């Protein structure tokens, strides 16, 4: 259960959401899209087109070639302590490929979308039907969504209930804008909501459904609107992975020279610890994202070299722990990429 | 015997302690009732296998009674009304307006006082984790009552042990949770408190654990015994070491 805290204007979290769905289509999974704001048909029309291997490799290859020509093989004289740190590699093709890459400027072709089976849940179209399950004092909209989801899982055999079905497939569930006013939940409006437990109950039942079936789910929530922080803590507890997106639009960080290469920060609050005592903890916790013309990338946060005349930077204290990311040879290699692939 | 142990975590995940106690008590031959609210059975099973215990076998021979909260919840919510009157779902409080956890307590009591329990040494109740009950709409008082009843039944009457995991944080805004945690702290015989390091995230030291033995409960005027260690979690076990003596540093 991937829980995403939306950025203020929802631009980037929508992008992440679409990536998740697009990856599902390319992998041939089934999709279930639920939303109260945009009609799922429209969401699906706007998915990014997948990049074919050669075009992407070529693009990156150009960049990498330009950089390699300035490759610093000389040993360092002053900052010799950094010599032993691994160089940030530019080309991700040297990594094992996991997932696919997408071109944000192009839309996915309708034929590709039609090639998989998908289900939609648009709240305003479903308001007429009554749920047959026990609502457990849960918000009606949430209850209907759960009902619909459970029906799809049972019918599609994702929970192993149909032994006849030979080919197992994965169901990718995307739920957009949960907890917002459009779902009939007032946790975004007041500090003491009428029913503060609806969202958490919903998440618990959803978690049960996910554990029982071959499915993965991404939820985006306008966390900045939720007044009651206790709910956010409980929700974090109930999710496997929690990622927050903070965009720089409209905030004072937009003009901060330290962040000029990026469009926002990625906060990883929690990573899944399933079937194991440990979880895969990465080296760094400072990740930033940027939206280039064609690509949306998530990278380690790099401080650009301090070429100003002043001795200290303004608001250096804001960047927690970034000091350890000063890479060796930082002049040429500002493109350290660590892709989070879907 | 007859002890109440509280597992507490702050800014980190203390579930490794739950896995430890589960395999510890099963290996010791105790009858265990495990109320697992947060994860599925297969998750615990896979980790327990790494620690050398087979949960499926324990369940089959009656040593382990496993309540899979997620599954019970689904059965309750989506199941048709075919409940027998004598066997309500342990998570009954979800569907009813009364928010007391009586059904859950009955489940615990019945599983630990079953006739075959004499074959095992000492009953144990393990709960992972209590904070989820609050998320599901149980009132804090109801949760505390449930724990109280469990203690009376398991610790006093059956001379067994109770181990409960809760999450907490100093700057938490979840007042109900903090209320429950503070109250439980006062009543615990032993508290194992796993915290993230105060200096922030570190790759080699995953956190520190504070072991508080509440000697003050038994003898008035005595101070609680507090020990602090740091730990690193690996795939099959957890290593503990004194503060500052991590292998990465030496």
UniProtKB/TrEMBL annotation, chain A:
The keyword Nucleus applies. GO terms for biological process: tRNA wobble uridine modification. Its main location: cytoplasm. It holds the Pfam family PAXNEB. It comes from the Eukaryota. Pathway: tRNA modification; 5-methoxycarbonylmethyl-2-thiouridine-tRNA biosynthesis. The keyword Nucleus applies. GO terms for cellular component: cytoplasm; elongator holoenzyme complex; transcription elongation factor complex. InterPro entries: Elongator_complex_protein_4, P-loop_NTPase. It is found in: Cytoplasm; Nucleus. Keywords: Cytoplasm, Nucleus, tRNA processing. Belongs to the ELP4 family. Component of the elongator complex which is required for multiple tRNA modifications, including mcm5U (5-methoxycarbonylmethyl uridine), mcm5s2U (5-methoxycarbonylmethyl-2-thiouridine), and ncm5U (5-carbamoylmethyl uridine). The elongator complex catalyzes the formation of carboxymethyluridine in the wobble base at position 34 in tRNAs. This is Elongator complex protein 4. It comes from Oxyruncus cristatus (sharpbill).
TrEMBL record, chain B:
It is found in: Cytoplasm; Nucleus. One of its GO terms (biological process) is tRNA wobble uridine modification. InterPro entries: ELP6 (IPR018627), P-loop_NTPase (IPR027417). Pfam families: ELP6. Keywords: Cytoplasm, Nucleus, tRNA processing. GO terms for cellular component: cytoplasm; elongator holoenzyme complex; nucleus. Its main location: cytoplasm. The keyword Cytoplasm applies. It comes from the Eukaryota. Pathway: tRNA modification; 5-methoxycarbonylmethyl-2-thiouridine-tRNA biosynthesis. Belongs to the ELP6 family. This is Elongator complex protein 6. The gene is Elp6.
């Amino acid at each position: 259960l991937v829980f995403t805290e939306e950025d203020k204007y929802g631009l980037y979290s929508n992008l992440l959401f679409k990536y998740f769905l697009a990856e599902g289509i390319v992998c041939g999974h089934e999709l279930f899209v639920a939303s109260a704001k945009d009609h799922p048909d429209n969401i699906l029309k706007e998915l990014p087109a997948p990049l074919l291997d050669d075009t992407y490799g070529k693009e990156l290859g150009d960049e990498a070639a330009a950089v390699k020509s300035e490759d610093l093989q000389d040993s360092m004289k002053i900052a010799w302590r950094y010599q032993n740190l691994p160089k940030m590699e530019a080309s991700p093709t040297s990594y094992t490929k996991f997932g696919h890459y997408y071109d944000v400027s192009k839309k996915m072709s309708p034929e590709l979308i039609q090639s998989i089976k998908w289900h939609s849940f648009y709240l305003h179209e479903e308001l007429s039907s009554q749920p047959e399950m026990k609502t457990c004092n849960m918000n009606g909209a949430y209850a209907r969504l759960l009902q619909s989801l459970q029906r799809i899982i049972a019918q599609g055999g994702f929970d192993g209930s149909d032994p006849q079905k030979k080919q197992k497939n994965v169901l990718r569930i995307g739920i957009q804008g949960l907890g917002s006013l459009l779902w009939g939940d007032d946790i975004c409006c007041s500090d003491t909501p009428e029913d503060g437990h609806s969202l958490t109950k919903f998440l618990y039942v959803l978690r049960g459904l996910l554990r029982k079936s071959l499915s993965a789910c991404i939820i985006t929530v306008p966390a900045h609107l939720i007044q009651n922080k206790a709910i956010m803590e409980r929700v974090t507890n109930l999710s496997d992975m929690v990622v927050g997106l903070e965009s720089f639009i409209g905030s004072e960080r937009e003009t901060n020279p330290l962040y000029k290469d990026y469009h926002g920060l990625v906060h990883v609050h929690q990573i899944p610890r399933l079937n194991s005592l440990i979880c895969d903890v990465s080296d760094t916790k400072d990740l930033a994202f940027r939206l280039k013309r064609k690509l949306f990338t998530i990278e380690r946060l790099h401080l650009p070299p301090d070429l100003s005349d002043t001795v200290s930077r303004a608001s250096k204290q804001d960047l927690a722990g970034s000091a350890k990311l000063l890479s060796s040879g930082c002049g040429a290699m500002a493109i350290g990429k660590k892709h989070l692939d879907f | 015997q007859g002890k109440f142990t509280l597992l507490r975590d702050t800014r980190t995940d203390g579930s490794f302690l739950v896995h430890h106690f589960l395999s510890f008590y099963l290996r010791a031959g105790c009858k265990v009732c495990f109320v697992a609210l947060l994860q599925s059975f297969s998750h615990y099973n896979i980790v327990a296998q790494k620690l050398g215990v087979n949960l499926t076998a324990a369940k089959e021979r009656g040593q382990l009674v496993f309540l899979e909260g997620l599954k019970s919840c689904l059965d309750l919510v989506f199941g048709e009304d075919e409940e027998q009157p004598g066997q309500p779902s342990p998570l009954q409080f979800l569907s009813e307006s009364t928010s007391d956890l009586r059904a859950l307590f009955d489940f615990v009591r019945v599983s630990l006082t079953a006739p075959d329990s004499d074959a095992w040494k000492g009953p144990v109740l393990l709960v992972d984790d209590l904070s989820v009950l609050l998320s599901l709409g149980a009132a804090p008082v109801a949760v505390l009552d449930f724990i109280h009843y469990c203690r009376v039944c398991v610790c006093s009457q059956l001379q067994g042990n109770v181990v409960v995991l809760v999450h907490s944080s100093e700057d938490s805004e979840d007042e109900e949770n903090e209320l429950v945690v503070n109250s439980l702290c006062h009543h615990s015989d032993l508290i194992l408190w796993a915290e993230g390091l105060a200096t922030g995230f570190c790759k080699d030291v995953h956190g520190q654990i504070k072991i508080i033995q509440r000697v003050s409960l038994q003898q008035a005027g005595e101070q609680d015994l507090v020990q602090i260690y740091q730990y690193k979690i690996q795939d099959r076990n957890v290593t503990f070491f004194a503060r500052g003596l991590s292998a990465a540093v030496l």
